[in-house]
Each structure stands twice: as structure tokens, then as C-alpha cells.
Amino acid sequence: MKKMMLASVFIFIMSGCSTISLGLYGKELNEKIQAFESTVNQYTFTMSGMAKVSFNTRTSTEKETITGEYQRDPYYVRYEDNTGNYIQTKIDGELHTYQVNSYTYEGKLFYLEIDQNNDVVGEIEIKTKSLVITKKNNMHYVLKGDLENFFTDASLDQIYDTLDQLYPTKKGGYRIRPTMDIRFSETTMLYELSFEFTFENKTLQYQLESQLTQATFDVMDVKDSTQFFPLPSSDFPVMIDASKPILYKGYLSNTGFYEIYLEAGIYKIETNNPNHKSNISIVSKETPQQWYKTFQHSYDNPTFAEPYHTIHTAGYYYLYVQILVSSLTIEIKRIGDTALFDAANLIIHTSGSYDYTPDPQHGLMIIEFDFPMGTEITVSSYFGMKMLHLINNDSLFGTYSINSEGYTMILNEYNRLVYLYLDTNPLNTYSFNINVKTP
Fold first, then answer.
1. What SS3 state is found at 9?
2. Is the pLDDT of residue 132 over 90?
3. CA 235 to CA 239: how far, in whole Å?
4. Is the pLDDT of residue 3 over 50?
């Protein structure tokens, strides 16, 4: 039932270019609508809908109310319903819908682009076949017709689907005659549509009311960086400047991507809440779903968590964020060039047991394997280590667990250098084993 109500609640708000051409009253009504629209370019609106099903002594009711502002040219809508606040615009003819956070952080509102393909405000689509128009007075007209007179084909499909669910034994052949009242005042235009349908012992009642009031208001531009800041999105990653602090609020979105440009180098991610560093990562645009942890490791105390990210090739990347917090500031800091982590602590030439001796500054041990390409290398340890190495030339790092069973790889140009670390007690000395099979 709610599905049907929402399918139609957005339709009856503006007539746009629609033409009512049935008889004298149709022409007269169309002229009044056009005159009302041409007076101003901006309106406030209130839309409310009600769908009620009665079955024997039981009744189920769904209600919806939407309020907002509408600008005809250029197209702009700001509206609010029981799910949140939204702004809808068109850029180069393409529709964009944004959900806006009502809370501020450092004086800015947050927005998230969402996947919505339908205009909230659209044309009235009144088809004149079988339509009867009567005039109550100069400010009140009544239209009587079939469902097909008032709804788009897409909305009709949803309505009939709902009717089939309510009346499974009927399956089509619905004879429903809605009534629409259109009333005018000096500054308002009001649409009221209603119908009732009864089959066997079940009755569906439907009412929709939409009022436009001529008004003036300031348009809110989510691209204005002095007022708004984007949230990460899985569907619509937003391009942001990685050299500036990133404001984040996990209210509308706690998982998603920003698009950033980075020069080659070593980067460290810092936040004003150290507990959340490990939930942020730089990933490739081509394979973001794999979320490679690039030099990302944490100690026992999360205060000392230091995610390092090596970017070998300048270009565009995704910043992946997965945090549910009230507010956060994220900074991406370049701490050096790519040679910073290219100097090995240990060069291994043969199989054997080796001590784990990490760099005290970064908590990593960098190992270089001095073997022919194609050599099979197995790294094992009883102390539960982790190992990272490049997996291709796009700066993607794989993270691998090193346990007693061992991790085996075939040496190539990308994994010649590997990086060992421990999640706990990173500066203690432990051992690991290397077993080599040359080709």
C-alpha cells in the first residue's frame, strides 16, 4: 500500500507543459494554470497522501507528508519527509539528488549524493480521453476520469501491482474513477485527488493533496564549499582536495569513497580520533572492493596506530572510509618519497631462520629477497606475523598472515621487497623462517 502511495505522491505538483484541451472548461483551466505558473519562478509546496485499506473490522492506514521549495528554472527542489532532508538539481540536464545532514561540523552541513532517478517535481500528466471537467466557480474545477487519466505508465504499473496484492482473486479489470479538485487563490494552487475501490469485503481509499504557494527563497548549493562538505559515497565518489583537512560525519554514510589525486610518495593518514585510523585506507579506483591495506598496521594501543600508504605512481585514487562516528577530521600527509620504505633492513640470500628486527620508527621490517625470478619462497612463523607486498604496478598491496603453516609466493618484480610487522609488541624480537625452492 505504501508503495502505491509513494508512486503517486510526487506527481501532482506542477503542470509544466501539460495541456488540458477538453472542451471550454479544459481550455479555461489550462490558461489559469499557465497564468499561475508564469507569475513567479519559485514556490513552496506541501504534499500529503493517505492510503487506507479496510477489511471486515480491520483497518490499515499509511500517511506521508512532504514539504519543500521548488524553482522551475533552473530546476531546483529542496524537500523534507520522514526519512530526511534532500536537495535535487539538474546539471547539464542530468538529475542529481543529495541527502543533507541537518547537523553541522565546523560550521558546515554535510551532503551525500544518492541514487534517485525520478524528478520529485514533475509535470501533471492528464490524458483527456474519457475525462469530464466541470466548473464549480472561477477558482474551483473538478476533473473526473479513469486512473489512466491522472497517472504515468510507471506509476500505473505500481498501482496495479498493489491492487493485485490486495485483491489476488480479481487480477485486473479495475474500474476506478478518481476525482481531482483544482482550486486557485491569488497566490496558491491546490490539487486534491481521491478515489475509493471496493471488491468483495475489502475497500481501498486513497487521498492526495498538493499545494503550491508562490514565494521567494535562497537556493542552497551543495557545491558551495563554504557551507557544505561531501560525505563518502559507494555509488557517487566525490572528488576532494587531499591536501586539505577532510571533514567527516558518520550520520548519513559510514561507508564509502572519496576520489583524490596523489603524487608518488609515502602518505600517513591522521585523524583527531586515533581510534579510527585503521578504518581509513587508500585504494585503487579499478579494484576498490578489494580494499588493499597499504602499510596499514596497528599496535596494542590504538593511539600509536600509524597507517602508511605507498603510492608509486601519481594519479587518482579512492580514499575508503568505514567509520560510524559523530564527527571526525581526516588529514592525508605526505611524509616522504617512495624510497623511504625501499631500503631493506635485511637481504636474504638463502633458506633459514631469521630474527624479526623492525625499524623502531615505523614498526616494520623490510626484507629484500635476492633470488632469481620465479623462485618459490615460503615464509612461516610461530608468532602470528603479517606481511605486505606489492601485487602489481598500480600500488596495490596485499596483506598476508604468516603462521606456522607458512605463506608461499613466487618471486616476481613486485614482491622482491616484503614488509613484516606484528600487531602486538612490535619492538620485541621474534623469529621467522624462510624456505626457498629455486626454479
1. helix
2. no
3. 13
4. no
